[in-house]
Amino acid sequence: MKVLVTGGAGFIASWCRRELIARGHQVLVMDHQDRRQQLADGEEFFLGDVRDATAVTEAAAHVDGIIHLAAVLGTQETINNPKPSAETNILGSLNVFEAAAQYNLSCVYAGVGNHAFRTIGTGCYTITKSAAEDLTRMYNLYRDGGRITTVRPVNAYGPGQSIAQPYGTSKVRKILPALTCRALTGADIEVYGDGTQVSDCVYVEDVARAFVTALEHTAVNGPTEKPVEVGPLESRTVNDIARLVAEYAAKVTGREPVGIKHLPMRPGEVPNAVVSSDTSTLAQIGMTAADFVPLEDGIRRTVDYYAQSWLPGWLEGAEVSV
Length: 322
Description:
The chain is α/β, with parallel strands linked by helices. It is about 40% helix and about 15% strand. It has one domain: 3-Layer(aba) Sandwich (Rossmann fold), CATH 3.40.50. It has a 7-stranded parallel β-sheet, sandwiched between helices. A two-stranded parallel ribbon has the order 7-10. A two-stranded parallel ribbon has the order 8-12.
């Protein structure tokens, strides 16, 4: 199968591409930034934006299936500037679904793990991604060629995830890079709220396996009855995750574990929130969360990655600036 991966230069997309190639598929990477220098064997590049219906239709004409990951991310960021997320996450997704229906392609759409928050107040990211998920149901029910499975991962983490300011250039804060970079540099970890909220994390390699498996399933059997929710069997609080990061970072650096500092919650964050998964839905595609990378092992791999690939450059820059 030749598979179009939208948002193909992104974090989850890069792992999906590896998984597709490992399973013998070909990949057409679509991204609005020219990243063709990052291509591996078995991959081609298509420069385009999902907001451009013509570009999406042209890319879809050359593939057998689509994994749709292109999106504008961020909770707080999309509250202050909602239009880009609406344009990309709703209209861009509509372009993808329309092209998939036109060519009768199997498609997997990346939903959000906190989809339920749309009823109690959250950022435009969740609102727009959930609206696009509503469109998948419409296509599956009423449109010829509608063959879309929704996969809802909770917080994906692992090697290669972008780092937000002040430790990196990303404008969107992700939980594991944010905690890890502070712990590795000896700064107290910052947790928004009291840390008792549940915000489940799932290792990105398992997320990629779920996306590719869902696409293969959809190609043969059609879309799943329910969205496929991807997360761990056991939920943990944000405080639990922060402590694990602090403890393993201390082993890596040889220092005492850093502390945990609690900050006021930000707009779009829900006190006492529970972001978790109904992992029984994985059975629809023949998977089980029992096979997923345990949180302790995933955090070890992630901290090791940033300690080796990011920390030396950060320390060198800090020495130069002194």
